# Entry
Amino acid sequence: MSESVDQGLPCSLPELDGSSDDRFRVVAARRRPDPTQIVEAFAFTNHDVLGIVACLTPDSIARPLDDWSALRQLWEETGDELHRPTVGVLGEAALFTALVDGDADELLDCFDGGVRNVLGEALAPGAAMLSAVVEPGVALWASTGAAGHCRTLAAIAPPAAEKALDAWVWWRSRVDAAPLVRCLLHSAKLDYEAAVYAGGIGQMRERESDVDASLDELVRLHVQIDRSGPLTTGALLEAQTRLTRLQADSTGLLVSMTRLRELEQTVKIAGENLRTVVPQPSPKDGTTEAAPLGDGLETAEWLTLQIAHDIAFGEAVRERVEEVRALTSLRLQQAVEWQTRRQARVTLIQTTLIGALVAALGASRTLGVGLDPRRPLRVPILIAFIAVLLALPALLAHWYDGYGWFDYVAVSALVAATTAVGIVLVWRDASTAVIVIAAVLGGAAALPAMRRVARLRATRLH
# Structure
């Protein structure tokens, strides 16, 4: 197709600026210069959709059902000529029409079996073919939709209704789409949104599972706090890390929920638009089947209800997050306050201890109280004195947090010095080597004892 249909319309698609325009506008049209058949197509924009409508007729229309197979082959060839995209396509529909003498009700009964035989092979897996006489007096067959598959339709009308049929299925004006074109457009949107929902809902449910897993971790931490008392520094840092992870998971869930709300609004709009243009069965038609193309309305209702359920479930998860987050924040605040008070107590003890020792030394000089231990006792007493000053504040500060290497060194030095003092007091003539060996053994024995105390304390806390 290379010939212009209308001098006011280009043959090729113009540059589109990507802006959204709710109006229907034909932006390009062309045809194949062939006097024996009609091969035309036009492109239009409507809101955020670019659509292409093609009209093909065979060389003869004596036997419409036989010619439809040839038309399908011609459409495949023409589709390649139109460079049909394979990505970003909302949907595709193939409509076969024919003009046959007779009343629409008679045509529906007469051609029903043949139409289903000819078009049945083109149905998508699981799709059904629905039929009815619809306004404006047309026998219509339409398959149910499925994203990624071509929807197949057939319309047969008497020759007297040719203009009405053309205006209904093909062309009205450059600014007004044919009702069936609008109907197929909104149906394709709903089929596409159903596929988007099916492909994305799994991610939201995974995020809900991640949030629930983070909630379970924090709830277990609260149970541990209730059993063991105040949080240790390590547990405090762990709680803050878990709370941060929970907030991140909750934010991801919120993003999924907002996208679901956008999808819900899109589905509602498409459903309402479809409701205004979906063909209704004629009052004379006594069929008990669902109206052709009415499955789009069912899809819109189902999607709207399902999305509402999913949003409600997501909101319930986020409510749990808010409750646990508030409780955890309160626990963390209490833990920080407790840590601050404990640090203040340690500082007070350390200051008091050092102040008392300094005051005692000063008072002893003022009162003339002399302290002159024997030479072998001087070094152990000095080491014990320094070890007490070092170890006591650290041991008090780390009572709930577990001991570190500095605590072990300070306690080992204290025990070693105390052992040396004891050896000198008990054994006045002990050699330096004996005193040193006894001090080393005493300091080394303090290490496993401290580890055992730390394990018992950790078991009690956890």
Notes: The CA atoms of residues 382 and 410 lie 13 Å apart.
